[in-house]
Specification:
Elements: E1 3-5, E2 12-14, E3 17-19, H1 30-42, E4 47-49, H2 64-73, E5 82-87, H3 102-116, E6 121-126, H4 135-147, E7 151-157, H5 161-173, E8 179-185, H6 205-214, E9 217-221, H7 228-234, H8 241-244, H9 247-256, H10 262-271, E10 280-284, H11 289-296
Parallel strand pairs: 3-4, 3-10, 4-5, 5-6, 6-7, 7-8, 8-9, 9-10
Antiparallel strand pairs: 1-2
The protein binds NADP nicotinamide-adenine-dinucleotide phosphate.
Amino acid sequence: MKKVRLNGTDLSVSSIGMGCANLGTPKVPEGQAHEQIDMFLELGGNLLDTAHVYSDWIPGEKNRSEHVIGRWLDSHPREKIILCTKGAHPDLEHPSVSRVTPDDIRRDLSESLDCLHTDHVDIYMLHRDNPSMKVGPIMDCLAGFVEDGRVRYLACSNWTAERHAEANAYAAAHDLPRFSVNELMWSMAEINRTALPRDYVAMDTDMMDFGRREGISFFCFSSLAKGYFTRRYLGLPIHDAAVYSGKANDRMSEKLKGLPSAADVTRESLRWFASREVPAIPLVSFSNADQQMECCSAFAE
Ligand SMILES: NC(=O)c1ccc[n+]([C@@H]2O[C@H](COP(=O)([O-])OP(=O)(O)OC[C@H]3O[C@@H](n4cnc5c(N)ncnc54)[C@H](OP(=O)(O)O)[C@@H]3O)[C@@H](O)[C@H]2O)c1
């Protein structure tokens, strides 16, 4: 798979990142999850996107995705993967209580490293923001992780362009590492912003201008719009219809009808990212091996 160099880092990541939110859940049980990681590497992938909170929405083991990756790492060399995890998400039992505090972030990183059975992550990301928190103490805290070698590069997710710029300006003024990557919602599909969860940030013109100006790379979640165009092509029910229904997506679906197969629609939806004005890596959750092969073939060398 083709690789993309992330601006301001020495990381070359695969053109698709493997979304790990469902690893270890009934959708992708542990054995299948390990096969999925093996297959991803075989297909030339290297970027795994997980989070401390994945998949605590399912009762049972906590931090399941990180544990599953950690058990995979027990028998595989660490340097085979570029590992991104996230902290500072609210506890799911108390979703309105922010955990974007230095104490919570410190606790999350150290628990993540325990779960992942590794001494460092390549990218450490704040999963949510709390705009009432000053960026200074947050960036000071994160810089400590880079200093002690537990984190190579910093990133934020669901932070607006304005807050990301504020954090990077603080970092520059204090000679600290900045957020090199911003993870947000972005796909070829138009979205109805009013239907999004309140704590999601999606690509917009401010973010695009900021990203271009500052050399930010983007990791893009819901990059297939939950399979929207492929499902329209196949006449299957749409996931998250409130987010995706609308005239622009109807027009795009009509256009894509001309492609020879559903797999081509999926590949087209992913290749779209390669022609953006900023480095943009689609993250995809695969439900099975066929989906995984189809997606990865979009960027086969
Ligand atoms: N930072 C954040 O706040 C945040 C939020 C959400 C997600 N994420 C990350 O982004 C990753 C992906 O997000 P996502 O699950 O929302 O988005 P997605 O990749 O757009 O949607 C995944 C769904 O797309 C369908 N799909 C995958 N490959 C397909 C193919 N070849 N053909 C047809 N359909 C296909 C599958 O649906 P079916 O199961 O119905 O087949 C799959 O469950 C997550 O695992 C996570 O790592 C981050």
